[in-house]
Amino acid sequence: MTTTDVPTTAVARTSAVPGRSGREREGAAWVFLSPWVLGAVGLTLLPMAVSLCLSFTDYDLFDSPHWVGLRNYTQMFTQDPRYWRSVTATLTYVAIAVPLQLALALAVALALKSMHRAKGFYRSAFYAPSLLGASMSVALVWRAVFNDGGPVDRLLGTGGWVDRPGWALLAVALLTVWQFGAPMVIFLAGLQQIPGELYEAAEVDGASRWRQFRSITVPMLSPVIFFNLVLQTIQAFQVFTPAFAVSAGKGGPADSTLFYTLYLYDRGFVASHMGYASAMAWVLLLVIGAVTAVLFRTSRSWVFYASEGDR
Question: What is the torsional sign of CA 148, 153, 157, 159?
Answer without folding.
Answer: negative
